[in-house]
Amino acid sequence: MQSQDPVLNEAAARLAVSLRQTEDQLTRDMLASTASFINCTGGTSADTPTEISRYDVDEVVRTLLNNNAYTILDNIEGQNKFGTAPVRSAYFGMCNTNLTGDLDAVPGFIHKNQYPSPMNALDAEWGAIGNIRFLVSSIGSVIPGASANNANIYNISCCGMEAFACIEQDGYSASFIYRPPIYSDPLALNASVGYKFAECPRITNDAWIMNLRATRSV
Question: Would the pTM of this model clear 0.85, i.e. be above it?
């Protein structure tokens, strides 16, 4: 005889991460393949696209503003604290963790620990440039060997409010399924646990999302 509760608790925690990462990957692939894009051109490299620069960030912000995309996050007002700076109302920029070094090097970059109220930053947030606050993930979009010099291209999905959505198929939301041992095998020794879902990620307004495509500087 054995107690399966600790095992099931750990399995449930891991499955929850797997579920949400799967949803993120499906949405990532949809955005990478269907959203309009702008190649970075303001960097110093000879590749096409170049690494990200302040010019490129300003260009995608202008595009979203001209398309009347609403910002997602409100501004963070400045406070009398050392090493901090006010943060503008912002769009989201979702990208791969490999771009963190290049983000740090962009003039005007504000790391989230320099926000007047760091508690207002999201866990995945790296920092802000102008009117974009960047969220990084190890599963961010990468197109291997696709640049003019055969370097990896990184999609930075810059979006305004309600630019895309995940639609459940026929109201079919994610389900966490547990089957007790009595239903799993003839001797009722082993439980089973898993998840299933059916949803479709889609862009709701093409004018409110833009992929800014960049390579790495090193």
Answer: yes
